Amino acid sequence: MLQIIGLDISKASVSACLILGKVDEPKEFYYHYNFHKFNATAHGISELLALIGVENLASTIAIMEPTGINYQILWGTQLARAGVEVRLVGHKELRSFREHHLSLPDKDDDADALALAIYGWDYQTNPRRFVQMRDRTIVEIRRLVLRLAHLNRIQSPIINRARQDLAWQFPEAALIKSLRSGEKVPLLWGWLCSQRQSVKYDLLYERSIGLGITDEVRRHAARICDLQREEMAIEFELSKLVGEAQFLPYRKVFARFGFGRRVEALLLSQIFPIENYLAADGKPDVKIRTGRRSGKPTKRHLSLRRFCKALGYAPSQESSGDLQKSKVVGGSDLCRKALWQWVFTRLEVQRCRMANNIGDRLGEIMDAEKLSGRPVRLVRSRVAAKAVKLLFKELVRELVRSQSPNQKLLE
């Protein structure tokens, strides 16, 4: 017999609500149900499995929110190992469901657990209502990508502080942009903490007008080198994972766009497999609807929109009478930022553009947008949105070609 368990996850515990059928009166159920709370310990996991029942593990669906790799992954992995099916509900979808479909009291952990359970029961047969589950390789790629983003965030203030100190201790080197060389840490930071030798910096320091390098700056340099080594180790792991055969068609397309290794890994972690965005028949989902103004049949490219939204480039419209507004909400902030930076470095500078039809096409759009006098930040965002749409079409075309050369999906 099917049973649904809603799990609201906190830092070190989880609130659980187990239901065996449809809940008609959520508010009454909330006041009479005996909610369970389990701590993130071996005993807590055992109690959760006991609540489900050993004989019911295979017929149970656990519903939870994707609260990041730090909290949700523990409970989700333990339940999956025990044979329980785990599904994730997006924060926005659950909030809308809770506000518009349920009459629950003020928000708390128990109410959230109940909302998750009811959502799971009501939409159990509709997989698009849930966040797509990723395979293990993609989960690991995503974990490493997020780790790189974290290292970048904590590294920047350390570098900034060190440069500010160098401005009066060794001003000749304060603004030097020092990068990694192969498997070696950046020369400037390595030299400052005595991990690399450099005659250039030795001579420059002898003639410096600065007041002398302090131990604080040398410790900052050592921290930067440690973080750079951790980055190199993560990038090595990413190279092995991204190099798997299943990602080859995707990487062929990424190469035509001139994406770097980090951007490749980030995009893969968000969009793989592309079939998640297609219709049940494996083709792009396109619906025909009568246009509100033209009155003519108009195509709605639903697969393309889902893809753009996942990457943070799908505007949501808010219309009421004559008032029409559009803004970008949802999607991956990391992908949106990475694509914006890619436009800035690979398309805006003409000599850096890809020497192919993609580079030519997007470059022309970039040049025309800038000549029109639009603000440059708006231009970059518009070009990035165009690139995302083109990326979807190229990915579908490449995957169709690799699977069925005679099939044409994009006509």
Descriptive notes:
The protein has 3 domains: about 5-130, Ribonuclease H-like superfamily/Ribonuclease H (Nucleotidyltransferase, domain 5, 2-Layer Sandwich), CATH 3.30.420; about 135-240, Helix Hairpins, CATH 1.10.287.4070; about 250-320 and about 325-405, no CATH class. Helices cover about 55% and strands about 10% of the residues. It has 15 helices and 9 strands. The model is unreliable at about 320-325 and about 405-410 (pLDDT under 50).
Task: Tag the structure with descriptive keywords.
411 residues, alpha/beta, Helix Hairpins, 3 domains, 5-stranded mixed β-sheet, 15 helices, 53% helix, 12% strand
* Uncertain stretches of 5 or more adjacent residues: 318-323, 405-411
Structural class: alpha/beta
Question: How many helical elements?
Answer: 15
Proportion of residues in extended strands? 5-15%
**H-E string:** EEHEHEHEHHHHHHHHEEHEEHHH
What best-fitting shape do the alpha-carbon axes yield?
A: globular
Brief overview, please?
The chain has 411 residues and is α/β, with parallel strands linked by helices. It has helices spanning 26-32, 42-52, 72-81, 91-101, 109-122, 136-169, 187-192, 199-206, 215-242, 248-257, 261-271, 302-310, 333-347, 357-371, 376-403; strands at 3-9, 13-19, 36-39, 60-64, 85-88, 286-290, 297-301, 315-320, 323-328.
